[in-house]
Amino acid sequence: MYYIGVDVGGTNIATGIMTKEGKLLAKTSVKTLGFRAPEEITKDIYKTIETVMRETEIPLPEIGGIGLGIPGCFDNTTGQVIETNNMNLSDFNLFAELKKYIDKPMRMANDANCAALGETVYGAAKGYSDVIMTTIGTGIGGGFVCNGKVYDGFNGAAMEVGHMCIEREGKPCNCGRCGCWEQYASATALVNLTKEIMAQEPDSAMHSYVAQNGGEVNGRTVFDCAKKGDAAANKVVDTFVDALATGLTDLINLFQPAVIIVGGGVSNEGAYLLDKVQKAAQAHSYASTKIAGAEFRKAALGNDAGIIGAGMLLAE
Amino acid sequence: MYYIGVDVGGTNIATGIMTKEGKLLAKTSVKTLGFRAPEEITKDIYKTIETVMRETEIPLPEIGGIGLGIPGCFDNTTGQVIETNNMNLSDFNLFAELKKYIDKPMRMANDANCAALGETVYGAAKGYSDVIMTTIGTGIGGGFVCNGKVYDGFNGAAMEVGHMCIEREGKPCNCGRCGCWEQYASATALVNLTKEIMAQEPDSAMHSYVAQNGGEVNGRTVFDCAKKGDAAANKVVDTFVDALATGLTDLINLFQPAVIIVGGGVSNEGAYLLDKVQKAAQAHSYASTKIAGAEFRKAALGNDAGIIGAGMLLAE
Which contiguous run of DSSP H or E holds residue B255? Predict the structure, then answer.
């Protein structure tokens, strides 16, 4: 049997066909154009499925199922999408509409949970069964693979790790709370903090670095300058590591996963960042010192993780 | 088949025998005297097992297994207890020692996770499969039943919910972190806060209440006085509800459980407290407003939860 995974993202619909072990054989994508009628989005989802089936010449009877990664909440028993962010699929029965084109077992999961499952089956945490993934981007996303399966909660909306409160009277968050983790440890928070410290430190090497690199502060600014010894940049790195480690320590204290996968642009700093974060998180976590703590690993599959994880929803 | 559950606590070893549905048929307990040799503790564990078997006249072949709730970390594959708090069972193979007396399948789980499983199988969350339990006592304990099974993490130490950080530069905790949830929302924290506000509010009715009720502030002081309209007591209740809801909102955002069970002495305030906390937690949680939020329920089984959950480890 082969499996189809569809990552229904805000920007692209990315679809792949894979073996039952999670090996991608073909993939394709189209723009989501999320504010179209949901029937049109569904038609394009089917077109991507048709494309990867045609390309690999895998016939319909050999397709075991179709998994869909959805950025929102849903009900797998009915196929109803309950609510999606930035996309016109809310209050829509995606299974029923897609079955007009292709009649196969279908299952949805949160997109971040799909990425965690993809990394567990075929990526950075291959061979493990209890895995947490955090994606450090504009916000902070999270996924949890429990005993080899995606954990979604009763409504598909679990693992909003970016919205753990780490500072009760802290910065206001879009979600309505104050002090959410992502206000301190997302890539957005890192860029804001970098700009703040640069304004305070006119002699920092970050100013000339930014001028020579397109004029815009980004998530790499501070790491590149810290590695060259700039004191202000190192101050930003220390503050950011502390914030990142605070939420990760919470996740260790709650989940005690064997592996924590860190993805998103910031994870490209690799061992330079992850070693610091792992050291800080392990130092503060509650577990016995007699047992090894969670191992931190950089995500390995990039955008393919969501596709592979979606496909593996039916194979698991 | 019948199952034996043993709650190996700091004070008592409490043991029960039950049906495969979790119905307790007999129970007994002895003092743990935790700093004895581990062989002596194990011998007493066996004696309690013998007692409940004799009392119910259930013969050895009808015993399906023995589950043990342990306040620490362990390795179920070997039977080794790795570390326990306040008890001399660390670095000791409990399965091997107990098998000298009785040769049955054995499994350990964290004591708080056993309580969560007990409440799920036979108590406040009967019929649900994804359940979080928090016990508000001296500290805050937690358990997680995922898809009907205890979630322990890779080392048996998961769900230390009391050690989520809700205030990064907050009160120091015994665990080494600052701002842990239990520093603000445990029964201990409630009593401390009550005393603090009483010192600031000499006219509060709490002073005469305490004088008339044994002279000591306890977890009920503030609730009894708040219900009678004392302003200072209501201030304490509001602050405590806010702190309790902060951690519970985090747990909702992470787990999206169908049911959150609240146990421990504070839960005896029942609907008066839980309704306030549920309202505050749901208002701040991330889930869609289109779907019902986690339902808060008072723990139903008291100390039996840990015994039943331990027994159900083998029956699940």
Answer: helix B231-255
> Measured between alpha carbons, how far is A9 from B88 in angstroms, rounded to an integer?
53
Please name the residue of chain B whose CA is at the shortest distance from the CA of residue A82.
B290
A116-145 pLDDT, tens digit each = 999 999 999 999 999 999 999 989 999 999
Model's pTM, two decimal places? 0.93
Residue of A nearest to B259 (CA): A154
Cα within 13 Å of Cα(B214), Cβ side: 5
Which residues face B73 on adjacent strands?
A: B83
The residue assigned the tokens 């969350």 is B125
- Give the largest CA-CA distance in chain B: 66
> How far is CA B66 from its chain centroid?
20
Query: Could you tell me whether strands B72-75 and B80-84 are parallel, antiparallel, or unpaired per DSSP bridges?
Result: antiparallel
Return d(Cα A236, Cα A183) in angstroms, integer. Answer: 15
Give the tens place of pLDDT for each residue, B83-117: 887 789 999 999 999 999 999 999 999 889 999 99
Nearest to B256 among A147, A154, A287 (CB): A154
Reported ipTM: 0.92
Residues with Cβ within 8 Å of A242's Cβ and at least 6 positions away in sequence, in order, are: A280
Distance CA B133, CA B140 (A): 10
Query: Exposed, middle or buried by CB within 10 Å (0-12, 13-18, 19+), for A242?
Result: middle
- Nearest-CB residue to B250 (from A164, A175, A283): A164
**Phi, psi for residue B12 in degrees, rounded to 5:** -125, 150
B130/B278 Cα distance (integer angstroms): 18
Phi, psi of B77, deg, nearest 5? -70, -30
Please give the structure tokens belonging to residue A115: 């990425």
